[in-house]
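Q: I'm building a small set of examples for a reading group on sequence design. Run inverse folding on the following structure and report the sequence directly after it, with nothing in between.
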């Protein structure tokens, strides 16, 4: 616990980058986060920043010395393309799901590549067919979980990018995960998407995965000058309290440009707001997990 006190007695956001990296090395060496979490990024609203968050959160975690694996479960394959895999990958997660569903033992490890430096299990457009094809398969909700199990010991974090709907692909991602991370814009339709997700989340916990937890809601494309954004943030804070990340991801065109170039934001422009925000988010997420793991409340000095 001493290291935790040391880290959070002074605000982690105010210490130098070098000191921060040293503290995280200590966290890594001492295995302070014991659980190696698998986290699904989801919400039933398109364009909410799921994929952008998956990429840049993974990159920030890597900089902090964590081993991270990304899994693309979206037939749009935006994550795959944004990390520099431009050709349709074959085999992709689609072929693995099919193999596993047909009784084979799909080896996910064999399709991991890291053209941008972050390891990824790629998706292809064929994944769109999987929703229907999986319908006839017994135990179809558990396929991804079974395939990821042998890999969990190799990574500190596995982040799964989901499509903007609750179908069999998202259900597979949720069943394979310990936590859910909900990136959304501070706008009405995103709020509706969040509510809709919460409804399904309750049902899914009851029927398939009682131990699944919400890790947090993070606001993306935030503009503090907009009343609607500030009001929605306050509303979410009242409703979801510490589930809402203090960090907001500001609107920053560099995030979109980086994706176009097949890079994460730290490779593209280390000093922009997007890089600062995703690093702050990674720190806050680690902080949440450490205190969860240690089963203790956040000290008041770090609550705000
Ligand atoms: N903070 C931000 N500032 C500016 N642009 C952003 C930001 N976050 C994401 N974008 C851009 O918004 C678009 C949608 O983001 P993204 O693809 O991450 O959303 P998504 O939730 O994954 O969408 P989908 O539901 O279709 O998978 C992308 O072009 C992305 O580059
Ligand atoms: Mg996406």
């Amino acid at each position: 616990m001493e290291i935790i006190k040391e880290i959070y007695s002074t605000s982690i956001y105010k210490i130098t980058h070098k000191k921060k990296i040293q503290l995280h090395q200590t966290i890594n060496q001492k295995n302070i986060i014991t659980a190696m979490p698998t986290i699904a990024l989801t919400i039933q609203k398109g364009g909410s920043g799921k994929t952008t968050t998956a990429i840049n959160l993974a990159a920030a975690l890597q900089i902090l010395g964590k081993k991270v694996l990304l899994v693309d479960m979206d037939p749009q394959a935006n994550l795959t393309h944004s990390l520099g895999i431009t050709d349709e990958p074959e085999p992709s997660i689609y072929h693995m799901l099919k193999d596993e569903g047909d009784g084979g033992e799909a080896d996910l490890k064999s399709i991991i590549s890291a053209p941008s430096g972050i390891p990824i299990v790629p998706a292809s457009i064929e994944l769109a067919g999987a929703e229907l094809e999986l319908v006839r398969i017994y135990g179809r909700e558990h396929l991804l979980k079974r395939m990821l199990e042998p890999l969990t010991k190799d990574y500190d974090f596995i982040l799964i990018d989901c499509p903007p709907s609750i179908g069999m692909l998202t259900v597979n991602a949720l069943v394979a995960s310990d936590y859910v991370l909900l990136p959304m814009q501070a706008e009405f339709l995103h709020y509706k998407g969040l509510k809709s997700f919460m409804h399904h989340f309750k049902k899914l916990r009851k029927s398939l995965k009682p131990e699944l937890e919400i890790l947090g809601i993070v606001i993306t494309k935030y503009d503090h000058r907009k009343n609607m954004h500030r009001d929605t943030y306050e509303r979410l804070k009242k409703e979801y309290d510490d589930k809402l990340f203090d960090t907001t991801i500001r609107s920053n065109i560099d995030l979109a440009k980086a994706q176009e170039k097949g890079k994460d934001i730290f490779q593209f422009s280390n000093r922009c707001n997007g890089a600062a925000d995703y690093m702050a988010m990674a720190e806050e997420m680690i902080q949440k997990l450490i205190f969860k793991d240690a089963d203790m409340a956040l000290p008041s000095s770090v609550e705000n």
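DSSP finds 13 helices and six strands in the chain.
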